[in-house]
Specification:
By secondary structure, the protein is an alpha/beta fold. It has helices spanning 15-18, 45-52, 124-127, 130-142, 160-171, 183-192, 205-212, 226-236, 258-261, 278-293, 310-319; strands spanning 3-8, 20-25, 33-43, 69-77, 89-92, 107-111, 115-117, 151-154, 175-180, 196-199, 218-223, 237-245, 267-270, 301-306, 325-329.
Length: 331
Amino acid sequence: MTTMQAAWYEKTGPAREVLRLGELPVPEPGIGQVRVQLHTSGINPSDTKTRAGWRGAALDFPRIIPHSDGAGVIESVGKGVGEDRVGDRVWVYNARYQRPFGTAAEYVVLPESQCVLLPDTASFAVGACLGIPAQTAHRAVFADGPVSGETILVAGGAGAVGHYAVQFAAIGGATVIATVSSAAKAEHAKAAGAAHMINRREEDIIARVMEITGGSGVDRVVEVDFGANVEIDVAITKPNSVIASYSSTAEPEPVLPYYALGPRGITLRLVGVYVLPAAAQAAAVAKINGLLSGDRLINTVAKRYPLAEIAAAHEALESGEIIGNIVLDIC
């Protein structure tokens, strides 16, 4: 039996207590699948939350190899997949969605469609950053149509998703306001294309947005924490605007202020990256790869760790102090 190096956990808890490193069987591709030899694995908050047992969630499988995102080279194919795909450099997404086999391993088997050609101009480290952050950002920005001429507030504009959202919105012709929590994060958002930065720890977000927009408010909000920021979002949005939220960590069961939203025709868009409609998925992939090929997408790999240091990598993400993406180097 051929084996591979992999990291996994069999119970939830702190990273150093539950993550294990060892040998597991190399998976075989089935019908319509390919096997990717991974060079990198991307870590996202959903990965660390699942491993930690966030909100009391139990394991959905007895053993879990974590992480949904990664990049590598297609090494073999199953029936129904052309041999010409062998050797393709790819970035992969949704490896862990409804499966126990993520990218924190030397190999992963996935449906061919979840393995996207990685432009030659992009490194494997960059490829590991795209699945969840960039696709979430694309959906949040464009789900309700073009943004040219609009004003968009990106909450958490220096975060992994927020940084891509700022770029997509600015490239799409919008004026972007980004909320941040430090001067360093303000510079990060500015470099991505934000026209205005608001330090949420030092400034009144509502007052500043109204000052920037001449009292009219914003056309859209890309929201990192709906429950924590709903009162702000209600106050800064125009009639018939959109609040596109991809998380609500601080308050998982927020109260919906219906009469502050409904009479003004506000659209509340909940973004689930794992279940993107096929057309939205294709649009995100096309936009991401188009910008990558043209060297127009800023990708920030903040820290890299070897697979053996996966626990430290999880802890770094959980610290909240890292500006950019955290990547594991597999080979």
